[in-house]
Amino acid sequence: MDSDFGIPRELSPLQQLRSQYHPELPPCLQGTTVRVELGDGTTVAKAADAHIIARAFPHSLGQPLAHFLRATAKVPDAQIITEHPAKRVGIVFSGRQAPGGHNVVWGLYEALKVHNAKNTLLGFLGGSEGLFAQKTLEITDDVLQTYKNQGGFDLLGRTKDQIRTTEQVNAALKACTDLKLDGLVIIGGVTSNTDAAHLAEFFAEAKCPTKVVGVPVTINGDLKNQFVEANVGFDTTCKVNSQLISNICTDALSAEKYYYFVRLMGRKHSHVALECTLQSHPNMVILGEEVTASKLTIFDITKQICDAVQARAEQDKNHGVILIPEGLVESIPELYALLKEIHGLLKEGVHTDNISSQLSPWSSALFEFLPPFIKKQLLLHPESDDSAQLSQIETEKLLAYLVETEMNKRLKEGTYKGKKFNAICHFFGYQARGSLPSKFDCDYAYVLGHVCYHILAAGLNGYMATVTNLKCPVNKWKCGAAPISAMMTVKRWSQNSGSTSIGRPVIHPAAVDLKGKAYDLLRQNAHKFLMEDMYRNPGPVQYDGPGADAKAVSLCVEDQDYMGRIKKLQEYLDQVRTIVRPGCSQDVLKAALSVMSSVTDVLTTISSSSTSGQQYA
Amino acid sequence: MDSDFGIPRELSPLQQLRSQYHPELPPCLQGTTVRVELGDGTTVAKAADAHIIARAFPHSLGQPLAHFLRATAKVPDAQIITEHPAKRVGIVFSGRQAPGGHNVVWGLYEALKVHNAKNTLLGFLGGSEGLFAQKTLEITDDVLQTYKNQGGFDLLGRTKDQIRTTEQVNAALKACTDLKLDGLVIIGGVTSNTDAAHLAEFFAEAKCPTKVVGVPVTINGDLKNQFVEANVGFDTTCKVNSQLISNICTDALSAEKYYYFVRLMGRKHSHVALECTLQSHPNMVILGEEVTASKLTIFDITKQICDAVQARAEQDKNHGVILIPEGLVESIPELYALLKEIHGLLKEGVHTDNISSQLSPWSSALFEFLPPFIKKQLLLHPESDDSAQLSQIETEKLLAYLVETEMNKRLKEGTYKGKKFNAICHFFGYQARGSLPSKFDCDYAYVLGHVCYHILAAGLNGYMATVTNLKCPVNKWKCGAAPISAMMTVKRWSQNSGSTSIGRPVIHPAAVDLKGKAYDLLRQNAHKFLMEDMYRNPGPVQYDGPGADAKAVSLCVEDQDYMGRIKKLQEYLDQVRTIVRPGCSQDVLKAALSVMSSVTDVLTTISSSSTSGQQYA
User: Phi first, then psi: what are they for B477, rounded to 5°?
Assistant: First the structure.
């Protein structure tokens, strides 16, 4: 890491304009009084995991949700925090860069300064490595000047997205102790927030007073659960990708001779690909979740695309745009099995040259069938989270190659009578990830930064900052915090010996919900998108006028507000308690008992079946 | 080609807003009177080419420049055209798609309708092939509705960028005759406009009344000469590319572990790469023109990059962004020679498998040294203009591969002590080419469309529409037309036999001027860009507020206005003529003779040396 982090720099006219923009705060965060209402203790999504998670999180499991309320809110149980002793807080970019990350720092800084001018915010330079090495930069107005509402993580930089090994957590503990931190805010995705929860637990166990807070910042949009509606950076990334995809659709339609295969960064799941499809209406998207659900092989997918190309050619359309999530390769069963075998052999230290000969016969046959460029990419060492190096595996080229081979075969056999199939491949990721953040990401990140302060002021440890009701305007946003451990699940694998191996509790990345409204919207339109070239161009991200306040389609169609509903339920329960106070009539009590008994029965039945059947993560 | 061209479609909110935008006209084109001033007859840029060009263009060479003037302009010689008999005009997208092309159609349509409601504009469906096949769509308000200020060429589509063979020009003649066209407007770059000039000559010879007009529309920005300052589409393309490049710079600076090698579409010359460098300040750019001027080999370039990587590593910077124009491969002498040999063998019908063995020893050695992926790409058949398939040759990957190999060698030898070199490669082209056009491109294209009408109203044939003074606001723009033949030059090659082979007169794409101000600006900043990470993020193209009216840096720094200066000179000459009228004093006459004699001497000397030394095209 170099010493250039956080230096002032020359801004373009648009960057200057953006640097002047000041996001508004929702009413609940305005003013200098923090009002926090602690709800019921949380449970975990899968009942079966409860005891394993409890063992890993003795200090934090079952902690209540926190809701931050406006100063004038009439909630009898809300705790009002009026004393704000000077705090020292550290903040670190742990996950991969995502547009908007800088605004978390800014929001937290402003909240700190509003509540006590003596509060101090230290940014760790160079991400987690800067945390371990205690390299800090004190955040000031001057430092923030040219980074407000700007993209990237270059204010502080980032390195590894892991705070996990004994050495690492000890270094983090030492840093927080040496620097006398009251709070440590960790910015990142599923991995970083998982590590934040474990670190919080480790700190609590070690009686370290530093409270750890996580913030959901990842372009992948896969840190989604009951408590978290969206991730900082997803909105901008999807908008920039959609801008480029729709440009390519326009290009395809202008010359009518190419099929564009566009792979999209977004890790294992297909949130980015789904959202971009809903924004720009390309002809086709292959979602990893669909492939998994239908157990499609690479040959099934190839055939699906070829049949689409053929159907379009029959309507004299010899062009098209097909989106491919980068995680697709791990969703295709036989490729996933092959990758697992390769990774296993790599772990055993087998040299890449010798791997092919040591694969199982089936995997070996598949491997030998693949073109050389993809073989080389499959042989790359896996990432820190054991997944393949998805950004390096050119699945779009593999599919284009297989489709071309098949179309040429059909052409020769006379079953396909269209023009020669021509593909051009793209990978969109890095060029969106560093983008100037959209208004939504600027606002969301800034508010999350404020929420971090309120969490620390309330003395909570191991929580993630949450903002819900995001599809509404900022003045309707609800702010809160949820224990990170309540978002965790546990994976189980059958071992060869017949026994079951149990994983560490982690936040698993959420898959695209094939029963959700966003996916439903895609399915309703998929045939029209495929055949009718309904290309839609959202254009470049705007900061004024139409489109400037646009939000992700998948955010707006989903009917989320889980946190709001939890609050509503509590209100009903409170009302019942008020109505059925001791002294009420026998009839009222009888009616209440009868109704509540059946409510309890129904919920018990539903929740036992949902925990066995449903995968939240 | 399918029947979907020109159909109305659903627009996004931003597209809708843009479809409502109406560009303004410069004062000279306002109103319904056309005033045209014809200047002196034109000459060609290189005197030595004059007789060859004259032979090819007996009807059009030496035609005067045309200036369109405001109705109230007091120019005695200006011809005023007040009669506007109904005209039938055809328009065709001949070149590759470029943002803004639709506005040429719109501008021409509006000019036609303003001057005579009975005027008809026919768009050829499917580009040049639609012209040959006489497939037309009558342009109406309804047809234009969802295409105003929108990107792509999908209103009419395009196919081949050639109207050149006997068969093709005869088909074009037949189409114009059958459809009774008074004018044919051809939209495209150097190739299309060259063909337009030859077609105009062919029509004149065949006594076909259809006048042919060319419009400079190409993302490459290489149709630049004394008369043409800029090309429609270049501005948008450079802005979108710069947006993405600067996002990648931000990304590089956030994680500090990658070198990004970005190849940019733009054909043989490096205008796009130069402009994007001036807009986004990446660490390095390798301009083809510099490579040609310094005769750098691929190994020189590799060393240059490696030395830069090493110098940056010494300052603890292990990241960077390097731009590479797609035409670079043809600027590197030994690769160009290799390509020429390969193309020669392909033309002789040698199968790609046997080419390697038939290369000259030197080329064969180079070919065998190259990695397999690039070998395969070099063996692709050349394009219609005999250049390599530049978009398919991944020069950025070749350079990244060579740099990595060299850096690993230096690391092993201990001469380089930095981190392991990691490269990520990109090719930006298609995703910019289909973009929503910038305000500048919308305005410029719309005005050019109007100019086309004025050219036809003045009865001119073989002219290109021109707008100059473009760096000033629209109300200062000057509109005119120049004979396309005056932009042509001729290439000469020494044959093996010692004789000289002479090419057909064409508009050669203009190289980046290494004596120009834009290049000078780059040179002044190159070292700072390399070492100091002065990344600048112009952001996504805006349509309102700061940056919305930005123009290309290379357009703004150059001091062009050739057409304005030609007019100014004519004014001086006229003044001299007025002052030195018969009857003036002997002294005045003597003084005039003496001064004009020395002026003539100086100009004769300069222009003979400039024609021998300078390459305009």
Answer: -65, 145
Q: Which of A2, A537, A545 sits opposite B436 (nearest CB)?
A: A537
CA gap B238, B241 in Å, rounded: 5
SS3 B64: strand
| DSSP letter for each residue of A421-471 | P-EEEEEESHHHHTSPPPHHHHHHHHHHHHHHHHHHHTT--SEEEEEE-TT
Q: Closest Cα to residue B479, out of B23, B31, B73, B36?
A: B36
Question: What whole-number distance in Å separates Cα of residue A468 and Cα of residue B189?
Answer: 52
- Which residue is closest to B262 within chain A, CA to CA? A431
Sign of the four-CA dihedral A538, A542, A544, A549? positive
In sequence order, which residues have a C-beta less than 8 Å from that of residue A114 and are 6 or more positions away? A32
SS3 label, residue B86? coil
Beta bridge partners, A79, equal A36
The pLDDT of residue A318 is above 90:
yes
Contact residues, chain B, for A243 at CB < 8 Å: 435, 540
Instruction: Tell me the pTM.
Output: 0.92
Q: Are B260 and B252 in contact (CB under 8 A)?
A: yes
Residue A4: is its pLDDT beyond 80? no
Q: What is the largest CA-CA distance in chain A?
A: 88
Measured distance CA(B245)–CA(B258) in Å, rounded: 14
- Measured CA to CA in angstroms, residue B488 lies from A237, B196, B271 at distances of 46, 12, 20
Q: Which residue has the tokens 């998670």?
A: A53
Give the residue on B whose Cα is nearest the Cα of A258.
B430
Task: Please state, in angstroms and rounded to a whole number, the distance separating the CA atoms of residues A461 and A458.
Answer: 9
Cβ neighbors of B104 (< 8 A, separation 6 or more) are B91, B185, B187, B215, B217, B232, B445, B446, B448, B449, B452
Say if CB A174 and CB A158 are below 8 A apart.
no
Least reliable range by pLDDT among A594-603, B1-10, B486-495, B553-562: B1-10
With contact defined as beta carbons under 8 Å apart, do A219 and A96 qualify? yes
* Lookup: tokens for B506: 């064409």
Q: Is B282 on the interface with A (CB under 8 A)?
A: no
Q: In angstroms, how far is the first alpha carbon of chain A from the final one?
A: 35
**What number is the ipTM of this complex?**
0.90
What is the residue type of B340? K
Neighbours of B588 (CB within 10 A): 12
Distance CA A572, CA A578 (A): 10
Helix and strand tally (H, E) in chain A? 23, 16
Which chain A residue has the Cα nearest residue B127? A255
* Residue A222, pLDDT above cutoff 80: yes
Residue A3: per-residue pLDDT = 52
Residue among A4, A5, A9, A14 with most chain B CBs within 10 A, to mutate: A14
Phi and psi of B173, rounded to 5°?
Answer: -60, -45
CA distance B228 to chain A (A): 26
In this structure, what are the phi and psi dihedrals at residue B270, rounded to the nearest 5 degrees? Answer: -110, 30
| pLDDT bucket at A610, cuts 50 / 70 / 90 | low
Q: In terms of residues, how long is chain A?
A: 617
For B549, what's the count of Cα atoms within 13 Å in the CB-facing half-sphere? 8
A125: DSSP letter = T
Residue B91 DSSP one-character state: E
Interface subset of B 61-120, CB within 8 angstroms of A: 93, 96-97
For A118-150, letters b (16+ CB in 10 Å) and e give ebbbbbbbbbbbbbbebbbbebeeebbebbbbb
Of A235, A195, A3, nearest in space to A98 by CA: A235
The mean pLDDT of B564-592, rounded to a whole number, is 85
Interchain proximity A248–B434, CB inside 8 Å? yes
